[in-house]
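User: Reviewer 2 asked us to show a designed sequence for the structure in our supplementary figure. I'm pasting the structure tokens here. Could you produce the per-position amino acids so we can include them in the response letter?
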């Protein structure tokens, strides 16, 4: 075997090793990215649920305010309208 052949074999071997290492790095990064996407999806779902709850509470407050204002405008005597059950703390 000549020196040129040995150099070619070494270069081919090094290229194969570099390709294997590169593939492992890409796979690790892809796995990390998928984990980040999953975490973000879970966070988004939790935030959407929280927003839904806050919007529901906001509607309940607004409805109660309207009932109180109607009670006042109608000059009805005390007691005011019942406290909404969905606003119990």
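Assistant: Here is a per-position design you can include in the supplement:
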């Amino acid at each position: 075997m000549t020196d040129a052949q040995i150099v070619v074999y070494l270069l081919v071997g090094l290229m194969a090793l570099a390709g294997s290492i590169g593939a492992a790095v890409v796979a690790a990064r892809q796995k990390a990215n998928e984990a980040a996407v999953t975490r973000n999806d879970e966070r988004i779902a939790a935030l959407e649920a929280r927003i839904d709850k806050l919007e529901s509470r906001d509607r309940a407050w607004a409805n109660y305010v309207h009932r109180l204002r109607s009670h006042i405008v109608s000059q009805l005597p005390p007691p005011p309208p019942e406290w909404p059950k969905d606003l119990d703390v």
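For the response letter, you might also mention the following. The radius of gyration is 34 Å. The chain has one domain: 3-87.
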